[in-house]
Amino acid sequence: MNLLPLRAAILLWALSPSVQNHCDKSSETSKLNLSVTYELPTFTADFPIQNMVILDDIIYVGAVNRIYALAPNLTKLSEYHTGPLLASEVCGLTQTRTGSTGRVDNHNIALVVENIYDKGLYSCGSADNGVCRRHVLDEGYSLKGVDEDVYCFADKIMPGEGHPIDPDVVVSPSGSQVLNVESNVITFFVGNSEIPNAGSISSNASRPHTISQRKMKTSQNGFTFFSNLSYMDLIPSLQGNYYLRYVYSFHSGHFTYFLTVQQVSKDTQAYHTRIVRMCSSDLVIRRYVEMPLECISTDKRRRRSTKDVKVFNILQAAHVTKVGNDAELQRQLKVEEGEDLLFAAFAQGKPDSPEPTPNSAVCVMSLKHINNMFKMYMQRCNTIDPYHFTGSDKTSCYNV
């Protein structure tokens, strides 16, 4: 298994063409008719919204204790109650919660759609022992409501009974990123956060793997791993005391990507953001690479000094989209229409903490340029083993 994190490889993306501490006054303000009232479609959920996906123009919204299906104009089509749940209503083995015999809230950890076998929606909640629920959305030619055909997506698991097998334990209570890549099979790539002091996993529950890939069974009653090389876990000495948070995941070209916030190393309390890349076509974790990623701004009006450089190291949110017909953007980023761009919102972290300060910035990055950086550092053999997964930090060299 080739494991390729990059040593001292930091992407430096400067905000361009210049960075100022104020916004220029718009020259178009005088042309605006400020008396016009704009009525935009809105939807207000009854509970905090946590995830959102779209399938066939239907918007599925995952919230605490609810999943909503919305029309393109944000009209509510259906609503499914995921909680609060009694112990007998959760997927799989009932977990004992000290001092609580009532209902528990079900937070939406992940929401994923698939479109090969049936139109399916997978909702993974905090109360379901790491198991996801599958919602079958279509029947014939009509779209079914998200509340009509729902079951625990785990082999031989019924609400309140049974113990989920290893591949069916998908998500972590600390948070997860789940990405579905469809080819001739449905492959789920999963990154599970490991947050110290965020609450322990019950001794009766299976521990989810830190990073993994699994396929949906053709019997449509659970998942299976391609092999025992389809997952990696934090080494035992770091479990419970190493900060690793998966913030965003996406698919571009031949690769699957995760964006994480984690400790710079096992021996420091400094934190930074990393971009993880895996080959989407691999059936095992064979070509894995990660690289530090930062958003840096400089004031080009002055002679550059350390005081003029601001480093934003803690990722808050991200989104990938295509380059549009924007000649100026294409010129500045040296990209062409149709290429993938990563928009990433960063914050400056508090000293020796993953917590953000109010200082933030957004950087726009070309996936083509990011991949060129990966290639350059691998060709130069600036690679080491990922200590948090292997327990080794030896220098290695791999052919690209």
Automatic annotation (TrEMBL):
Q: Report TM segments.
A: none
Keywords tagged on the record: Glycoprotein, Signal
Taking every annotated instance into account, which residue ranges of this chain make up the domain Sema? 24-400
- Write down the Gene3D superfamilies for this protein, in alphabetical order: YVTN repeat-like/Quinoprotein amine dehydrogenase (2.130.10.10)
Cite the SMART domains for this sequence: Sema (SM00630)
Where does the signal sequence lie? 1-21
| UniProt-recorded name of the protein | Sema domain-containing protein
Source species, please? Xenoophorus captivus
